[in-house]
């Protein structure tokens, strides 16, 4: 990837939402090629809205956003998207490989009985997330962690350059959460792709992150984790005094805002396993 | 020749001879032809109905179709025209209101009841021909004409062609709505196409099982299939096979017994459904003996 394409995402005075109901505003940031970025913030702060802007499912309320040097357009094949999902119906007997192959061929019109390209690509995608043994298992019987791997394979099957992962770590226990973080990091590094990941808890991600986008109180702060996760930056973001604490393991806890209880909650449990 | 004199026909062990005997009668031939076409279409479209959890919407469409069929009879038109017009209109309206709206059972149920009421009014205005109402509500496959078979065939070809074109996008949109939307699939158009497919399939199925028994061909076979099928195509094949088997067996038995064909079809499908659940329970008990 040459230098002029190294900027994958650029936001300028970006505002999200609608004219009468702005979710957040004045966002200025850029994401470079190959960066692993976490998007952190309280519930309802507009994290998924950023993904919708990038996917072209929603237009900016104000300002400019560019993806791969152009305005976002729905159906961009360079983007692999893993939405936040509800649990799969336990009676769903369709096997994993059938879902993954649709990630590649599901947008094609017409009928193809004999093409196996998408099947081969689906097997490769499942293999790359260590889930080849799940290929012929029914979706309804998979565990939360297994499902997240399959969904990640759906996002990867079209060989994208940019990954948008919406809360892939939710509903996982600590061990599965750590496994999946390692897996996602391996995928990002080995494929040399750019990844944005929405999460509630930044701590399991910290060792791997290049950047953090912190969305709260209608504002957006971006930068390296050590620059963003400071009492000064977050106090300015929230517009109220906030204290950021670090423990001996390097875990962060944000004190002073009710919505951020989740940050502390996880970081404590985390210690038992470390 | 009517259905009552048929009961004197005697059943022989040779099924082929039995079929040859049946097919000497034009109405039985037409019934088998129309029944076969309808079973194939209902099995295929029904697979998507169950996959998208839209069975109540399909059920409602058939009731909306009742008003259309009754209205057509009142104005001296072929009931199938009223069925197609009303179910298509209702289907498009439901799709425009959104997929979530199509799952709002109270609203759908309210419209459904009103449409049945409207149908009753039309039927009574048509100087009270109860047989017309009866055949729309419960099906009258033994009264199918050659012309009806041709209309059914034409509608089916349109449905099958449309399914072949939208097969993968519709499957994708049904299994993984958010990703399909992000990949650029036209979700609203797909929703409308799907509901029109259901409308057409419902309209032709009404001839066989009537509006009240539409579940037996459009939903139950597909629901059984989706308890086993690991691949979509496999599910469609099983669904069609069950719908076909029930329709054929129903027609076959009805040739010898003086009871309605739709009763036999619904009973066979119901029996298969119960059998499926029993087998499943049995298997799941066999699969985990260690926990006992």
Can you give me a brief rundown of this structure?
The complex is a heterodimer of chains A (274) and B (292). Chain A has 274 residues and is α/β, with parallel strands linked by helices.
Helix content of chain B: over 70%
Structural class of chain B: mainly alpha
Summarize model confidence as the mean pLDDT of chain B.
Answer: 88
Query: What is the distance, rounded to the nearest whole angstrom, between the alpha carbons of the first and last residues of chain A?
Result: 37 Å
Largest pleated sheet of chain B: none
Count of distinct strands of chain B: 0
Which segments of chain B are poorly predicted (pLDDT under 50) over 5 or more consecutive residues? none
Can you give the mean pLDDT of chain A? 87
Ends of chain B: how far apart?
60 Å
Number of helices of chain B: 14
Rg of chain B (C-alpha, Å): 20 Å
Largest interface, counted with CB-CB under 8 A? A-B, 31 and 27 residues
Q: Which band does the percent of strand residues of chain A land in?
A: 25-35%
Decide which structural class fits the backbone of chain A: alpha/beta
Structure description:
- The complex is a heterodimer of chains A (274) and B (292).
- Helix content of chain A is 31%, strand content 25%.
- Chain A is globular, with a radius of gyration of 19 Å.
- In chain A, the strands form three sheets. In chain A, strands 5-6-7-3-8-9 form a six-stranded mixed β-sheet, with helices on both faces. In chain A, strands 2-1-4 form a three-stranded antiparallel β-sheet, covered by helices on one side. In chain A, strands 10-11 form a two-stranded antiparallel sheet.
- Chain A has helices spanning 47-54, 96-105, 117-128, 144-156, 174-191, 225-228, 231-238, 261-273; strands at residues 7-18, 21-32, 36-40, 62-67, 79-82, 162-166, 194-199, 211-216, 219-223, 243-246, 252-255.
- In chain A, helix 2 (96-105) crosses helix 3 (117-128) and helix 3 (117-128) crosses helix 4 (144-156).
- Chain A is built from eight helices and eleven strands.
- Chain A is of the alpha/beta class and 274 residues long.
- Chain B is mainly alpha-helical.
- Chain B has helices at residues 3-6, 15-22, 26-51, 55-74, 79-96, 105-125, 130-138, 146-175, 177-182, 187-209, 215-218, 220-225, 232-256, 261-287.
- In chain B, helix 4 packs antiparallel against helix 5 and helix 8 (146-175) packs antiparallel against helix 10.
- The longest helix of chain B is centred in the middle third of the chain and has 30 residues, at 146-175.
- Chain B starts with a helix and ends in a 5-residue tail after the last helix.
- Chains A and B meet through strand 5 and helix 2 of A and helix 8 and helix 9 of B.
